[in-house]
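Progress against Task 2.4 (sequence-to-structure conversion) is shown through the following example record, which the project officer requested during the mid-term review.
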Amino acid sequence: MDIKEYIFSIVMVLSAFVLTHTWITRFGPSNALIVASAMVMMGALAAMLISIDMRLKKVEEALREEESSLKFMMNAVESSLSAQLASVIKMVDDALDEFTKRIYK
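Structure tokens generated for the chain above:
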């Protein structure tokens, strides 16, 4: 987790304080409960965004691991099929050669 995410979270909370306090004081004395609630709401939002980011990183890592294992399995299947096809092609070629020899005798 990067330090910039924490910095952005702190900026969110502080800007919520400043904006709420400024907005409320335009209409009279400010209510500390409203300002604190706005700060808590921004803090919760920041925590939720950080949590989503962490989960997305875990999913991304799991997908990378899955992709790596799929590549390995595909290579194994490819080499197995290649070997099987080579043996089948050899058998068909041998059968054609034998058939051709019998026809021209």
